[in-house]
Amino acid sequence: MAENIEFELVTPSALVMSEAAEMVVIPGAEGDLGILPNHSPLIATLRPGILDIYEGGKSMQRIFVSGGVCEVQPEGCTILADEVLTENEITRASAEKRLVKAKKTLEETIAHAKNFREVNDAQKRLAIAKELMSIAEKIEKGS
What we know:
Layout: E1 5-10, E2 15-21, E3 23-28, E4 31-35, E5 42-46, E6 49-55, E7 58-65, E8 68-73, E9 76-81, E10 84-86, H1 92-112, H2 116-141
Parallel strand pairs: 1-9
Antiparallel strand pairs: 1-2, 3-4, 3-6, 5-8, 6-7, 7-10, 8-9
Helix pairs in contact: 1-2
């Protein structure tokens, strides 16, 4: 039996999952990170993207994370994500709607912002919406 790593995915509102996995590939801010059992301790920020949970040598679950932080210890990996969506929850229509709203919000924020933080937050929402749209297109194509 292959060794597993304990994996937890948490949002501000709930524990989304807690299970053993062969490997977890996370969308790190500096690039994808493959987390295996006995991994060196690590704390990393996440970019919007797909989190892959492997079992039996292949990806068994794919989950979108909008960003957050990952803590890795030799025995486990915990992801504190801002938002998560399963592949079944991602549709092209919802992604398009979110993208249009994020673009409009950014335009309005640039026109009326009182500080750079407001603009930065709007830019972050747009980046998340763009990544979600890209993923929705890939799901639609079946890739």
